[in-house]
Amino acid sequence: MNPDIITVTVLLFGKAKEMAGVGEARVTVPRILSYSQLKQLVFQPIMASSMLAVDQSYVDGDDGRIIELKASSELAVIPPLSGG
After folding, report:
1. What per-residue confidence (pLDDT) applies to 66?
2. Which residues make Cβ contacts (< 8 Å) with residue 16, sequence separation at least 6?
3. Within a domain: residue 78?
4. What is the three-state SS of 34-70?
5. What residues make up the domain containing 20?
6. What is the Cα–Cα distance from 42 to 10, expressed in whole angstroms?
7. Is residue 59 part of a domain?
8. Is the full-model pTM beyond 0.70?
9. CB–CB of 40/46 below 8 Å?
10. pLDDT confidence of 49, banded at 50, 70, 90?
11. DSSP category for residue 83
12. Does 76 reside within a domain?
């Protein structure tokens, strides 16, 4: 088993959930990767207009930011919010 590769939970909401057809999925990813790599591996089809949270904290859109995940990490894709 490679300790640099882990499986994390991905939560999808709103349009992201609709597009994926599921509200939750388990995805295998490198333990350490950049924000840009994370988008490409997991969220490319829906990230253009969505925000990303890791372990219930929003991640800024800096594509060079390094993110370290744990096997217990939870990733959430949050679609744009509209309100009135």
Report:
1. 87
2. 43, 46, 50, 77, 78, 79
3. no
4. EHHHHHHHHHCCCHHHCEEEECCEEECCCCCCEEECC
5. 15-70
6. 9
7. yes
8. no
9. no
10. low
11. -
12. no
At 63 the pLDDT is 67
C-alpha–C-alpha distance, residues 22 and 24, integer Å: 6
Instruction: For CA atoms 17, 19, 21, 27, give the dihedral sign.
Output: negative
Name the residue with tokens 């253009």. 48
Residue appearing with tokens 């993110």: 67
Q: pLDDT, tens digit, for every residue of 19-40?
A: 778 888 888 889 999 988 887 7
> Could you give the number of structural domains in the chain?
1
Q: Report CA 7 to chain centroid distance, whole Å.
A: 12
Is 5 within the bounds of a domain? no
> Is residue 35 left, alpha or beta, with left meaning phi > 0 and alpha meaning psi from -120 to 50?
alpha
**Sign of the dihedral through C-alpha 4, 19, 77, 41:** positive
Query: Cα separation of 82 and 84, whole Å?
Result: 7
The two structure tokens encoding residue 28: 């295998």
